Amino acid sequence: MAQHVAQPTATDPAVPAKLPLKAVAPWAVFFGILMLILLYFVGAEQGATSVFSGAGVHEWVHDARHLLGFPCH
Amino acid sequence: MLAGLGAGLLALIVAYLLGEPNVDSAIGFEEAHAGHSHEHEVELVSRGVQSTAGLATGVLVYGIAFGGIAALVHCFALGRVGRFGPRATALLLSGCALLAVYVVPFLKYPANPPAVGNPDTIGKRTALYFLMMVLSVLLAVAATLLGKRLAPRIGAWYATVAAVAAFAVVVGLAFAFLPAINETPEHFPAALLWRFRLSALAMQLTLWAGFGLLFGELAERLLRPAATAVPGRAVT
User: Hey, are the CB atoms on A73 and B200 less than 8 Å from each other?
Assistant: First the structure.
């Protein structure tokens, strides 16, 4: 009779299968770093630190930086 | 990332309609009180471009970047955070991300309009803001792992309560020990500051809610095509 009681196991259709960590890890590292670089350019480039000289990047994303909550100037 | 782009578009609309009037008012204040801090130089990018194309670039790149990161985290979280399907996991994840990435740092170092903030301290303020963001995200991850560890022993409900409480206590300690920043100039209109910060919050809320729903929908369709297919309609 005990077999009729639904057990929350990995084979439960309500719980999606786990993706293997080893398969996700390389993608996570690569795209994670790429995304962090994008964030850096929106959030901090030519404010506190500069990779490129000038203020073009800063001025271009100026309003977004204020409204997204990053310290701007 | 595509869902992030879509959510970014929604947030852009909110930013343009709610946020921009406040930025303009703040710049008006800045110019009215200029003379001591801001030198009048040739504008590199005009206000018209800043408030449209520039704003769009910033918000969309932000949406894409956080969308990409959240999608990766979703791969790790799916099937590991209790009995949630792809759609529910996505919404739960964006709720937590809104809290950890934005609301917690915002409570300590809120968004500031133009004219607020001393240009000389930009390095310190940027470092503190990113520190608070990283700290909050790491603590959220640690709290999640703690909750998972406790769940088999004290049950999912109490494990979640304990993990959230631990997160709140450590964030409270960080708030207490990190230096405060208050560089709002004298006579800056309080109502304007309040409206600016509310609009910034509304923008993030739209971004993350939009991302959670959009990404959840896409993930659900990708991972569970049979469940979402409308019964009775032939699937070709």
Answer: no
- What's the CA gap between B25 and B110, in Å, rounded? 18
Nearest to B203 among A31, A65, A67 (CB): A67
The pLDDT tens digits of the residues spanning A4-28 come to 544 444 455 567 778 888 888 888 8
Residues B13 and B79 in one domain: yes
In chain A, residues with a C-beta closer than 8 Å to the C-beta of B57 are 60-61, 64
Mutation to test the B interface, candidates A41, A53, A63, most B Cβ within 10 Å: A63
Residues in chain A: 73
- Kindly state whether B68 is in contact with chain A, defined as any CB-CB distance less than 8 angstroms: yes
Query: pTM for the full model?
Result: 0.82
Q: Domain boundaries in chain A? A: 20-73
> Which of B36-40, B58-62, B142-146 is most confident?
B142-146
Burial class (CB in 10 A: 0-12, 13-18, 19+), A16: buried
End-to-end Cα separation, chain B, in angstroms:
27
Same domain for B176 and B75? Answer: no
My answer on whether B175 and B204 are in the same domain is: no
DSSP B34-100: TTSS------SS-HHHIIIIIHHHHHHHHHHHHHHHHHHHHHHHTTTSSS--HHHHHHHHHHHHIII
ipTM of the complex model? 0.78
Kindly state whether residues B82 and B165 are assigned to the same domain.
no
For residue B130, the enclosing domain spans 121-183
> Nearest CB to A63: which of B23, B68, B80?
B23
> Are B12 and B74 within one domain?
yes
Rounded CA separation A36/A39 (Å): 5
CA B140 to CA B168: how far, in whole Å? Answer: 10
